[in-house]
Design goal:
The complex is a heterodimer of chains A (199) and B (321). Chain A has 199 residues and is of the alpha/beta class. In chain A, 20% of the residues lie in helices and 29% in strands. Chain A has two domains: 23-131, 3-Layer(aba) Sandwich (Rossmann fold); 137-196, no CATH class. Chain A is built from four helices and twelve strands; from the N terminus they run E-H-E-H-E-H-E-H-E-E-E-E-E-E-E-E. In chain A, strands 3-2-1-4-5 form a five-stranded parallel sheet. The termini of chain A are close together. Chain B folds into three domains: 7-105, Beta Barrel (Elongation Factor Tu (Ef-tu), domain 3), CATH 2.40.30.10; 115-223, Rossmann fold, CATH 3.40.50; 234-319, Roll (Ubiquitin-like (UB roll)). Chain B contains seven helices and 17 strands. In chain B, strands 1, 2, 3, 4, 5, 6 and 7 form a seven-stranded antiparallel sheet that branches. In chain B, strands 10-9-8-11-12 form a five-stranded parallel sheet, with helices on both faces. The chains are: A alpha/beta (199), B alpha/beta (321). Chain A binds chain B through residues 18-22, 92, 95-100, 120-123, 125-126, and chain B through 112, 114, 185-192, 211-216, 218-219. Bound molecules: FE2/S2 (inorganic) cluster (FES). Chain A: GO terms for molecular function: 2 iron, 2 sulfur cluster binding; metal ion binding; oxidoreductase activity. Chain A: Residues 138-181 form the Dimethylamine monooxygenase subunit DmmA-like C-terminal domain.
Chain lengths: 199, 321
């Protein structure tokens, strides 16, 4: 689980069924298990108007059938988060008040889906989130502004400008990314050992 | 007196009968200066000095927040109430000097909203008069649905229609017109906030329907000033000040405490702001809770009372005041 360190560090909860009739789920990988766990406690007919968007990632076909068996009104399976996001934006563009959003899985998925929901007019406090699986981070390099996906090490090399970055807990909801700051600006020859800490 | 209730000396510059039940009052500062800035949804507490007693009633400001040369309020006459509205209707005339509080807003717009959906019932229209002026000034996106008993009691419907045309929807009870609430709530774009002001029953209905339809609590705003109800007189012991007081039939508990020379905190005097919350030390009898502040459990617990609107019946009541 993620601990609260500084104010901007997102904290996640446990999915729980909200009042209303329209429910939109967006999950990747192990996030499917969070939906399945929640489904044990949902009232009859809860998924009748639900829409589930799922990116299995490295879980392959493990969860797909189980999620489909919830019989949501719509089910979408995407190859990557990047491919699912435009679909999510499209869905949100025609949605109405009363829609409830549930995000589950990696921080990258939760953050980017949250960003799309906020752009569509959602207040983050009304969105259910649950972190499952990988702790990999999306990191924005504060120097070149490039985003490096799936960061698991500390420090990490920026995939755009090549600077060695310290990954901070400082998080931007607007960018859906953690902040990466050059770790050896004083002496570029100094290069601390990279450790895999965001698995 | 209390936090946020700085007093302002005003002069009544106009009194306008609007329909058979409602009169509008205009105030300007006696020193000719501008009144304090306020935002749509704010109210002021008006002091009514009626021979030997002083009533303090909250009224929503309905004039445009963009113009603070004067404040206007509208008062609906309530023939069975404790006389505040009758005092305004019968005794207040142009030229009269009065004292009002600085504005306080417990019903403000959430300006992050993409759209503001407003639902008014009867005289609950007044805060929306100010809010729509404020939003129109910024090209804000709003829609107002207004329910009333009859066309002639649709206070300011004509003014609003003149200003905002099709953004104003009117439903007249006597014509069998009904607000299609479920449909309305189901068709709002994401980022809409809902505002409700009107009778308690209507607020209750709209809040419940919105919650069932999946609207998050943070997007639903409402205001209902409970008017203090008259009731049987009762005796109270104020433990800190060591006083025994009697709350008369037409007085609120808060007014009785004030009449004893004590200066308890308050802001809304309508059971919504929480400022006047008072601890109960002991009691023998029943509380008549009338506020929208304390939770159901707190009402049951017998440990707290909101003296601006709630009363008591029974043998004894000791308050920490
Ligand atoms: S003064 Fe606001 S609740 Fe009593």
């Amino acid at each position: 689980m993620t601990a609260k360190t500084i104010l901007s560090r997102p904290v996640y909860g446990t999915l729980s069924p909200q009042p209303g009739r329209n429910h939109l789920f967006v999950a990747d990988a192990e996030g499917a298990a969070a939906i399945l766990d929640m489904a044990k406690a949902t009232p009859e007919g809860f998924f009748a108007d639900a829409h589930i968007m799922f990116v299995p990632d490295d879980t392959g076909t493990n969860y797909v059938e189980a999620v489909k068996s919830l019989q949501p009104a719509r089910f979408y399976q995407g190859p990557t988060i990047a491919a699912a996001l435009p679909r999510l934006r499209q869905t949100l563009a025609t949605a109405h008040m009363g829609l409830r959003i549930y995000l589950a899985g990696s921080e990258g998925l939760i953050g980017q889906a949250m960003q799309a929901a906020m752009e569509a007019g959602f207040d983050p406090s009304s969105i259910q989130t649950e972190h499952r699986g990988s702790l990999a981070r999306r990191v924005q390099c504060v120097h070149c502004k490039g985003i490096t996906e799936n960061v698991t090490t500390q420090p990490v090399t920026c995939s755009h400008c090549g600077l060695l970055l310290l990954v901070r807990d400082h998080y931007s909801r607007r960018l859906a990314a953690f902040q990466g700051v050059c770790i050896n600006a004083e002496d570029p020859t100094e290069s601390p050992q990279a450790e895999e800490i965001f698995r | 007196m209390s936090a946020g209730t700085r007093k302002i000396d005003v002069i009544v510059t106009d009194v306008v009968p609007v329909n058979e039940l409602v009169k509008r009052f205009h105030f300007q500062r006696t020193d000719g200066q501008l009144l304090p800035t306020f935002s749509g949804g704010a109210h002021v507490v008006v002091e009514m000095r009626d021979d030997d007693r002083t009533r303090l009633n909250p009224y929503s400001l309905m004039s445009s927040p963009l113009d603070t040369r004067d404040y206007t309020i509208s008062v609906r006459r309530d023939d069975t109430g404790r006389g505040g509205s009758l005092f305004m209707h019968q005794r207040v005339n142009p030229g009269m000097r009065m004292v009002i509080s600085s504005p306080v807003n417990l019903f403000s717009l959430d300006l992050r909203a993409r759209k503001h959906l407003m639902i008014a019932g009867g005289i609950g229209i007044t805060p929306f008069m100010a809010q729509t002026s404020q939003l129109a000034g910024d090209a804000g996106n709003f829609e107002l649905h207004y329910t009333c008993r009859t066309e002639t009691l649709a206070t300011y419907a004509d003014v609003l229609k003149g200003r905002y045309g099709r953004r104003i929807h009117l439903y007249r009870d006597d014509q069998g017109e009904r607000l299609p609430l479920e449909q309305l709530l189901a068709s709002q774009p994401l980022g809409t906030h809902l505002y409700i002001c009107g009778p308690a029953g209507m607020i209750e209905w709209v809040r419940r329907t919105a919650a069932e339809a999946g609207w998050p609590d943070d997007t639903v705003h409402f205001e209902h000033f409970a008017a203090p109800q008259p009731g049987k007189p009762f005796d109270v012991t104020l433990a800190i000040s060591g006083k025994q007081i009697r709350v008369s039939e037409q007085q609120s508990l808060l007014e009785a405490i004030e009449a004893a020379g004590i200066d308890p905190p308050y802001l809304c005097r309508g059971g919504v702001c929480g400022q006047c919350e008072t601890k109960v030390i002991s009691y023998d009898g029943n509380f008549l809770h009338n506020d929208h502040w304390l939770s159901e459990e707190e009402h049951q617990s017998g440990r707290k009372i909101m003296p601006c609107v709630s009363r008591f019946e029974g043998k004894s009541l000791v308050l920490e005041r």
